[in-house]
Structures are given as C-alpha cells and as structure tokens.
C-alpha cells in the first residue's frame, strides 16, 4: 500500500501519555453544557419532518398508481 504511511505508523509509539484520561476529562469539563433548542426550532424541525413524510408518501402512492395504470393498460 502506502509505504510512507506504514513507516509513519510503525515509527509512532501507540501508547497514550500517562495523564491522557485526566487531560480529556479536564477538556470535557471546560466545555459549555449544550443548550436546549428553542421551542420554535423544535417545531420547525417537526414541521419539516412531517412535510417530508407527506411528500414521500405521495411519491409512493404515485408510483403505485403508475404501476396500476401500466398493468391496466397492458391488459386492455
């Protein structure tokens, strides 16, 4: 494969520093807590999802109607 990448992977010691867990936990603790989305944002997401579901359902119904129309025309 890529020998440069293989050489690099073999040259790097795969062990994490001894205080790696403490560093990660300090970083996580310093991050702000996630904020709850605004009510209008949640409502807009639900409305968009409902519109997508309705559009998808109409596409399925249209496809089934198309299949029915083709088979009905073939039988006639």
Number of E-type strands:
0
Helix % is over 70%
For the termini, the CA-CA separation is 61 Å
Give the mean pLDDT: 91
How much of the sequence lies in strands comes to: under 5%
The major β-sheet equals:
none
Describe it for me?
The chain is mainly alpha-helical and 76 residues long. It has a domain of 38 residues. The protein contains three helices and no strands. The chain is elongated. The N and C termini lie far apart (61 Å). The mean pLDDT is 91.
Gist?
The chain is mainly alpha-helical. It has a domain at 39-76.
Describe the secondary structure blueprint for this structure.
Layout: H1 3-11, H2 20-30, H3 39-75
Feature tags:
76 residues, mainly alpha, 3 helices, elongated
